[in-house]
Amino acid sequence: xxxxxANRSRLALVQATGEVGNLRGSFALDRLLNSARTHLFILWTxxxxxxxxxYVKKLWIVLALLLFGFEIHAVADLAQPEIVxxxxxxxxxxxxxxxxxxxxxxxxxxxxxxxxPGMLNSRASKSIGPLFAAKGWLFFMPYxxxxxxxxxxxxxxxxxxxxxxxxxxxxxxxxxxxxxxLGDHLSDQMAAYEWLKSLPNxxxxxxxxxxxxxxxxxxxxxxARVSFCAAVSASxxxxxxxxxxxLQQAMKDAVRNSKSPILFFQAENDFDLSPSKIxxxxxxxxGKMSEVKIFPPFxxxxxxxxxxxxxxxxVWFDDVFSFIQRKCPR
Length: 330
Hints:
Rossmann fold, 2 domains, eight-stranded mixed β-sheet, 52% helix, 16% strand, globular
């Protein structure tokens, strides 16, 4: 039981911290203990005596760690990704990789990031990657050209869309978004998929895809190209949907031709719930397998609601992982 609880508590602690990879130093340790104490002690108490715990004190997290030999640094190490490089034609792109313990082969998740500039998308990787790795799944977040570890491989999509808007307003920006999503960015995703599939420690028939915001769009588009065992679109297109009939059509076309079951999820206070509801209905009308889950509001603003796919991982992870596991059996 001690070994089983250690594994469960490790996952609980990762879920509780969210962006544990950004924590540093003694202050970080104190923050880590504070953010995890309720999750871990409730789990510990319920495992031992079946009690329901409402309130705990900080001392109990220390006792739980001592009693079960749980090591804080193991979680911190788990939250640091391996930096990898892969090719797409003449381009060299970068990505972040989280590996489970052991030699594998492992099922794998390809995670498509959003539109944030620079290395900001690493927040999603550090929040979600350790959760999948703790469950025995290899997690890979490739950076598409112009962003993060692939910033030198091309122009940043945000700058490209801004330039298009200045030149031709929303009609041109909408057209440009779809051209980039179906062109360069989908090409980068497919190159990442082929690289991931080629790894000797990956089960090639158990590769799932997930993504938030622009990454959710990519997951939908990619599902029409390759057979992911499962796909998850988190807030895909929510911020662009109403202003881009071109995007609406492209995503509808993709789901109608999807080779993968897709779960659509959002927080209730996201920018627009239409993508999940409409695309889910389109798939069912075509006899495709899909699920739609709308979670309660996350934060107080639409922007906070849109951050739910990475900032709220402790809320949605169990539901999403259950969907992936059901669709990707051994």
